[in-house]
Amino acid sequence: MKILVAIKPVPNPDEKVKIRPDGSGIVLDNIKMVINPFCEIAVEEALRIKEKQGGEVVILTVGPKEGEQQVRTALAMGADRAIQVEAEKGLDSLAVAKFLAKVVEQEKPDLVILGKQAVDDDNNQVGQILAALLSWPQATFASKIEFLDGNKKAHVGRETDGGIETIEVPLPCVVTTDLRLNEPRYASLPGIMKAKKKELKVIPSASLGVDAAPKVKVLSLASPKERAGGRKVADVAELVAKLKNEAKVL
Amino acid sequence: MADILVVVEHQEGAFKKTTLATITAAKAYAGLAGGEVDALVLGDGAAAAAADTVAGFGVRKVLFGEGAAFAKYLAVAYAPAVAQVAREKGYGAVFAPASTFGKDFMPRLSGLLDAPLASDIVGLTRDGDKVRVQRPMYAGNAIATVELIGSPLLFTVRQTAFDPAQGSGAKSPVEKIAVSADAGGSAFVSRQETKSERPELTEARVIVSAGRGIKAQENFKLVEELADLFHAAIGASRAAVDAGWAPNDWQVGQTGKIVAPELYVALGISGAIQHLAGMKDSKVIVAINKDEEAPIFQVADYGLVADLFKAVPELIAEIKKAKSA
Ligand SMILES: Cc1cc2nc3c(=O)[nH]c(=O)nc-3n(C[C@H](O)[C@H](O)[C@H](O)COP(=O)(O)OP(=O)(O)OC[C@H]3O[C@@H](n4cnc5c(N)ncnc54)[C@H](O)[C@@H]3O)c2cc1C
Ligand SMILES: Nc1ncnc2c1ncn2[C@@H]1O[C@H](COP(=O)(O)O)[C@@H](O)[C@H]1O
User: Are A16 and B141 within 8 A, CB to CB?
Assistant: First the structure.
């Protein structure tokens, strides 16, 4: 099976972001960029499918040159080759999905896997938009993928608010990953060495004929209201007294 | 002035309260931009119940698109139907809850209509003659002010950020409309529900959550015993869910459920950024953790540094005493 995996570099999610004083964005100096955790899960799933039934895993990203680093990491995990649509930073979801759709039309994969959400913008949009643009079925928030009928269709377990839902989708389709789909592997040292020689095709975004004019514009960022937390109680008796007399929740 | 459409969430006809905060947000938008708020229910015959329910919450009218392909929710069938209604009736904005329902079909709708979508909005403001929305980014560590350009404008609404719409005491008209319904080759197969007598996490007044510190599935008995005293819902951190001690739909956080109960009790949860993103808007936060440096204490109104296996049984006993006093 030929699988395309779309990945996005994001600031390390374990670091608390700082907002620039003028609200124009976040402070990116000294922040490590990593593959969005949900995209790592997408890469892992594609590799597992390939290990089971053969095929090819192609990494795809849309963004500035620096993203090459995270693409190389995905290649080091075991993907076969990569495509980078070189574009300016900060495109909106519609624009990203339009670029992805162009490459999907060229590459004709059987399956496209994306993360459910990029943990910088927290949009949770690109996979579903891509599916719409391609007129393909979609299975979002996947925690299990099973192929049936010689890969003609898949059963996908989806994590929904009400529990796990399983849907059937014909291939080709778009799947977005949830946390419990798998645990991504680390890139091995030989993997890292091999990755340096793997093909990375760069496509200038302007050559794809996409109207990327923003329809969603982030005007400014502000810090959320801070909680006045941090008070400690000495023991259970004091806790219960506070809950009863001060917070009045008992 | 273009009108506003709210897509109603229901499960096989059972109305979901997520829709109520969505109506409030849509009305706030109407207050800023003008227009009237209508509701759209898609479903098979069973969904008439949901249409009847939403008619009681102060919308102008309820559009009911009936079709066998809507019997079980699927984004592939829903998105084109909503697109058709929005286009044919010229709605200027479409709202849906930022639940796994809205997060699934609304971006697909955005792709179909080439229309801008703001996910998970928590506020609306006006700037000159333009409406702006606020939405969290970076696990809630930044609140972005966003402008949408195009038509219709699409929004999913964070339920905890808007009060639920109140019953109006009257019933709006329900109008049947014809929409095409086609799921292509996709189909619903099954649902594995977590059955519980407890209130839903997103609707509960009190939530008791446990993390890796609870150490084993059987120890959730302790969590339940505490929760019983409040008729509380039970939540979990990702660590507890990943360990298999709690079902996935109990996960609170950036990528799980966003909650804001009156009281949130965190037991053996360290307070990672991603967990805080889901609960830091709770009114009162209690944390019990044996590590006094745990970041959860920075957001807790009442922090108790203690072994939860010692403190929670004591707490249960003391609350029982306090309640009977
Ligand atoms: C992309 C991404 C998305 C994520 N989304 C979420 C999300 O939505 N929700 C979420 O919760 N996490 C999420 N996480 C995971 C998050 O980063 C943390 O790993 C997770 O929240 C940790 O769970 P925990 O606090 O239970 O475990 P730990 O961090 O291991 O903390 C356990 C705590 O229990 C305490 N403890 C241990 N024993 C006892 C005892 N006997 N009595 C009292 N205290 C005790 C310890 O002191 C410790 O503080 C996400 C991570 C990523 C990368
Ligand atoms: N610039 C990008 N390049 C490639 N894939 C992307 C990009 N942005 C988002 N994606 C994919 O879409 C998923 C969801 O992102 P989002 O809709 O932005 O939350 C991510 O996990 C990626 O798989």
Answer: yes
